[in-house]
Amino acid sequence: MPLLQELVLWRVLPDATDTDLGTRVCLPHLRLLFLLNDDKRSLALWSSLVIPSTCSIRLELEDFDEQDASMVYTLLKYHLSGPNGPTYQRVQFGDTEARTHSTHICMHSTATVEDASAAPLVLERRYVSTYKIDADPMISLSVPSGDLGFLRKVLDLLPREPIRTITLNERAPLSAFSFASLARSLMCRFSQTETIEVQGLAPDCSSLRGELAQAAFTFILDIAPTAQEFAEFGRECYMPRLHTLSVDNIDLHSESRYTEGRQLHEVLTEAFERRLAVGMPLRTLNIRGDRLQDSWRESWSSLVGEVFWNGKRAVTSDYDSDSDDGDISSAASEDEEED
Predict the structure, then answer these.
(1) Which of 56, 127, 173, 184 could tie 145 with a disulfide, CB 3.0–4.6 Å?
(2) CA 73 to each of CA 90, 140, 242, 300: distance values in angstroms, whole numbers, following the listed order
(3) Count of domains for the chain
C-alpha cells in the first residue's frame, strides 16, 4: 500500500465508521487521487490520507453543502501548503466535458496545456478522462453550480504572483451575472497574468453562448487604461505583464450587454488601442473562428505585435516593445527569413 501511485474510486466507498475516520493512511508515492462520489465518503477518505503535495487531486462532487465546502477548503489548504509543492501557473474555469450541473475549476502546474506532459489521456469512464500518473501536478474540482463564493475561496489559496495564464471556457453552467463576476474576480486577483484564453462553444452547445466572452472582453477593456488613468494610477493597476490574448470560437459580431450594445470586435479594438497608447501593447493575438473579417485583421495588426489568424500568421505591426524579449517585429522578420 505505501508504494501505491494511483487511486481512482467511483462510488465504491463504504460508510465510514468512527474508527475509520480516526485512521491515518500514509501514501508517500501517490501521484493521483481521483474521487467521484455523490456523498461525503470521498471527503472522509481524502481526510484520512497522508499524501505528498505533488500528488494530483481530481474531485467530482454531486452533493455539496456548506459543511462539504468547508471540508474541501481545509483539505486543499493543507495540500497546497505542503513542503516541496509545485507552483501552479494556470487557472482554468469550465472545460470541454458536458457537465450539466457542475462548475469545473482546474489548476495546472504548467502555464499552457501544450507544456503539460498530461496531454495523453487515459482512464475513461463514460467519455470522462483523467490524466496519466506521470503528468505534471494539477488540482481539478467539479462542484455543483451556484456556489461562486466557494470557488473564489479556492482561488484565494493560490499565490497571486505565479499565475501566468487564465483560461475561461464557455462550458460552465453559470448565469450571465456570474460570468461577469467571475471574469472580474480572476483578473483582479491575478493581476500579473501574462496570457488570457477565452474559449467558446459550437452554436448548439450553450444557451449562454457569448456571455463569458462579453464579460471577459469588457473587463479586458476596463484594464486597458486611458492616458489620463495611466498617469494617475500607474502601470501596476492594469495587468502590466499581459502580452497574449487567445480567442477561440467566439462570435465577435455579437453585441455586448456590458458596453451599450457595441459588438465584441469593437470592444477588443478599443482595448488594443488604449494599451498601445500607454506603452503596454499586446505582443500576440491568437484568434480562431468563423466569420472573421479581413478589416479586423488589418486593424489589429497595427495595434498588436503579431496576429495569428486561424493558425496562420498575419502581418505584424511596427511598434517597439519595451519587454525583455526585445523587438517583436524584428523577431518576426528573423523567423520569416529562417523559413
Answers:
(1) 173
(2) 19, 13, 29, 42
(3) 1
Residue at 66 is within a domain? no
Closest to 196 measured CA to CA, from 208, 206, 184: 184
Give the whole-angstrom CA distance, residue 168 versus residue 183: 8
Domain assignment present for residue 49? The answer is no
8 A C-beta contact, residue 148 and residue 181? yes
Q: Rounded to 10 degrees, what is the CA torsion of 269, 272, 276, 282?
A: -150
Q: Tell me which residue range forms the domain holding 298.
A: 164-338
Strand order of the β-sheet with 195-199 is: 6-10, 32-37, 56-61, 138-144, 102-108, 90-93, 165-169, 195-199, 244-248, 284-288, 306-309, 312-313
CATH number at residue 206: 3.80.10
265-293: pLDDT as tens digits: 998 999 999 999 999 999 999 998 878 88
* Cβ neighbours for 19, distance < 8 A, ≥ 6 positions apart: none
The pTM is what? 0.79
